[in-house]
Amino acid sequence: MIARAGTGPLRHLVVLRHAKSAWPSGTPDHERPLAPRGRRDAPAAGRALAAADLLPGLALCSTAVRARQTWEWASAQWGTPPPVRLDARVYAADAPDLLAVVRETPAEVETLLLVGHNPGLEDLVLDLAGDGLDDTLEEVRTKFPTSAIAVLAWRGTDWTALTPGTALLTSLIVARGGKSRPATP
């Protein structure tokens, strides 16, 4: 079963890998900030989501500084950002743990944004996608870079129904320096 099958409203899980981070000497991984490129790419991610009409009803974000800054810079591109839940479980989570967090989303949310880290995000996208449009699945398998946005669509009465293989990967966008481009060169 993929997005075209199932019952309930069409839902979107938008997965955003944090923008490029810096590596300041002596800074713990959790506290690493965005690099200058990341500060350019994060707003581009926000603009790409707005242009694709994928503004979320709720955002779930890792507590790591680079993920929080990505969220702040991206959501600043929208008129009124949605509520955000900072969740420590998203930091360094694997795909099953991320799916457990996503399944806690209230049923009234039809578009959810998840801001986090690799390899967990890439694995989650690949686990959930039963199919993909064009070459999107192969592109994710090849590379899910910083500021990548994967859009998964599926039908379900609530988020607990989201299981591996039930979503359609509809697009992959990589936001860069004020521009957004498809992941293919």
From TrEMBL:
<dbReference type="InterPro" id="IPR013078">
    <property type="entry name" value="His_Pase_superF_clade-1"/>
</dbReference>
<dbReference type="Pfam" id="PF00300">
    <property type="entry name" value="His_Phos_1"/>
</dbReference>
<protein>
    <submittedName>
        <fullName>Uncharacterized protein</fullName>
    </submittedName>
</protein>
<feature type="region of interest" description="Disordered">
    <location>
        <begin position="21"/>
        <end position="41"/>
    </location>
</feature>
<dbReference type="InterPro" id="IPR029033">
    <property type="entry name" value="His_PPase_superfam"/>
</dbReference>
<feature type="compositionally biased region" description="Basic and acidic residues">
    <location>
        <begin position="28"/>
        <end position="41"/>
    </location>
</feature>
